[in-house]
Write a structure and sequence with these properties.
The protein has 183 residues and is mostly helical. Helix content is 42%, strand content 5%. Helix 1 crosses helix 3 and helix 2 packs antiparallel against helix 3. The strands form 2 sheets. Strands 1-4 form a two-stranded antiparallel sheet. It has a two-stranded antiparallel sheet with strand order 2-3.
């Protein structure tokens, strides 16, 4: 598991956001968010219909803070304070991230198909998943930093490539690989 400093989450410059009674940061207390993952849900014009059109599904959204850069800075500060940079070289970070992905997989192991939104999971199970996914993201961001990959910009470039490889007009409703499509 990723090392942390207890229940508090350090922000930039060593500040520690105050926590509300439900365990969420006061910085996010005024937003409509889940206490487990801090996310908000909102209706979207892209939401799909449920139950034959009886209602609109709410599309999940992430909160706007912290940004990926905030996460990078918080982890860099956390690592610097502990003099761990000597251990956080790209190969080590990659292997640590793979280990954390294994911990995520372990949470899903033997469950069969899992419905979106995890309706059959307990709050404790959801919280454990949130911890493990956070570990994966933290290692990914730190690996990108050590490799000098600007992840937000890399995502934009990759999405543009994916749009070319998988044009909606050709692939709509199909899970085939781009090499299997005919012009």
């Amino acid at each position: 598991m990723m090392a942390t400093n207890g229940k508090k989450v350090c922000g930039m410059n060593g500040d520690v956001p105050s926590m509300s009674p439900n365990g969420t940061s006061e910085a996010f207390a005024n937003k409509s968010q889940s206490p487990v993952n801090g996310a908000a849900t909102a209706a979207s014009p892209h939401s799909s219909l449920q139950n034959g059109g009886a209602g609109r599904a709410e599309r999940f959204t992430f909160s706007s803070e912290p940004t990926m850069e905030d996460v990078r800075r918080m982890q860099a500060e956390f690592t610097d304070e502990r003099d761990w940079n000597q251990f956080h070289q790209p190969r080590n970070l990659l292997l640590a991230m793979v280990g954390e992905v294994g911990e995520v997989a372990e949470l899903f192991q033997w469950r069969g198909e899992v419905a979106e939104g995890l309706p059959d999971w307990t709050e404790t199970e959801r919280e454990q998943l949130a911890h493990e996914l956070s570990d994966v993201l933290i290692y990914l961001v730190e690996l990108a930093e050590k490799c000098r990959v600007d992840l937000p910009q890399a995502v934009l470039r990759k999405m543009a490539l994916n749009r070319l490889k998988y044009p909606a007009s050709k692939v709509h409703g199909s899970a085939k690989k781009y090499t299997e499509y005919k012009d």
